[in-house]
């Protein structure tokens, strides 16, 4: 079985795949909190605990991290606890088949690269990927599978925490839809501003990016949402056409199959 590891700023997502190619199936997935102080030994113990009965069934590993400290410990963990298991860590030099049409390809995060590969594999048309994580990333992908760039915005949780810490009369609230867009109390006002505000922000960015991608509206554009916070905005967005929660894990599987025969 192939273990995929997506270590981001807030969470580490794990996925276990059986089979290869079009027959590949995501058997289980897990999420754990990212801790930049976690050692390789602690990481291994946590991963094996989550895998449970699947721990000894891992025959391949594909991983990435956008956090340098976590990436370092991830490499140590893979070398120390999985020395004989074929593995790929997504970094410059790893074959992905994704052309990077940006000013500085080295600046493109491994997660954005892998998402591009997965989106193009799922939809052989131009795509916009909206990744709701620590930051909200809106990335543009051409119909040829080229990464064209995108836009960053502060993530939902970061914005909520910043608002609560800087405004004395406001506080962190549960992120659920309020009774109305017009809030009748402080909690509902916050919920309306956060949920509908972020949905409007995403829709505005997506519409502008899609307009550039679609050549005046003559070509189809798929809008794919992913990331741990995507479910908060899905029902309020007018532009998202598909939710693929395991998009990055899917891309990691594709990268592994391109590099390990």
TrEMBL record:
GO biological process assignments: coenzyme A biosynthetic process
Binding site for substrate: 109-112, 186
GO cellular component: cytoplasm
CDD domains, per the entry: ASKHA_NBD_PanK-III (cd24015)
Record-annotated membrane-spanning stretches: none
EC identifiers of the protein: 2.7.1.33
Stated name of the protein: Type III pantothenate kinase
Natural source organism: Prauserella marina
């Amino acid at each position: 079985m192939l273990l995929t590891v997506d270590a981001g700023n807030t969470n580490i997502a794990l996925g276990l795949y059986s089979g290869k190619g079009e027959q590949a199936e995501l058997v289980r997935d897990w999420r754990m909190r990212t801790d930049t102080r976690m050692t390789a030994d602690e990481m291994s113990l946590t991963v094996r605990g989550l895998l449970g009965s699947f721990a000894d069934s891992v025959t391949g590993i594909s991983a990435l991290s956008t956090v340098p400290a976590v990436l370092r410990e991830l490499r140590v963990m893979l070398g120390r606890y999985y020395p004989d298991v074929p593995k790929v860590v997504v970094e410059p030099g790893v074959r992905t088949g994704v052309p990077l049409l940006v000013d500085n390809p080295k600046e493109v995060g491994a997660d954005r690269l892998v998402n591009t590969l997965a989106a193009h594999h799922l939809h052989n048309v131009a795509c916009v990927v909206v990744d709701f994580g620590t930051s909200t990333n809106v990335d543009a992908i051409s119909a040829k599978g080229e990464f064209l760039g995108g836009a960053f915005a502060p993530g939902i949780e970061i914005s909520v925490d910043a608002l609560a810490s800087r405004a004395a009369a406001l506080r962190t609230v549960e992120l659920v839809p309020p009774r109305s867009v017009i809030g009748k109390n402080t909690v509902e006002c916050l919920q309306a501003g956060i949920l509908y505000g972020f949905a409007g922000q995403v829709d505005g960015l997506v519409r502008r990016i899609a307009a550039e991608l679609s050549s005046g509206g003559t070509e189809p554009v798929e809008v794919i949402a992913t990331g741990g916070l995507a479910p908060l905005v899905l029902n309020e967005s007018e532009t998202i056409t598909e939710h693929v929660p395991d998009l990055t894990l899917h891309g990691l599987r594709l990268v592994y199959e391109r590099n390990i025969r």
